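Query protein
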Amino acid sequence: MRIKHILLSLATLLACAATAYADEGSNQVVSAAGYGAPPQIEGLSGAQRRLMSMRASKLDAYRALAETVQGFRLAGNSTVAALSVQNDSFRTYVDAYLRGARVVSMNALPEGAYETILELDMSKLSSESSSNHPYMMRGR
């Protein structure tokens, strides 16, 4: 039971890295925020660091949007010895096909980080677009 509590706590902490929410109105708009930090790789110019941070924030926002629309799978593993956790790890898996998401904003944050806000209008998704790809709006 304690291991499940730890895994749930870690999953909740991971979910806080990016935020997503659905509009309760009739528009059914889902928004997600993603964050990216500049890489600490030697030899990169300031422009390269900035572009990589921007790209990371956009990918993180897409991941958050996919988790909100599609859900995610959590796999965990814990090793306990002498009633003490020796090793505790988990992974999340997201598998989604998103079409029609748009970048609402991309903002520079302190220390070279970026925030990207994405939006997806669920009411504009047609049954035709969902039938064109096996993963659209359907879990694996």
In short: The chain has one domain: 2-131. The chain has a mean pLDDT of 78. Residues 2-131 form one domain. Residues 38 and 47 are 10 Å apart (CA to CA).
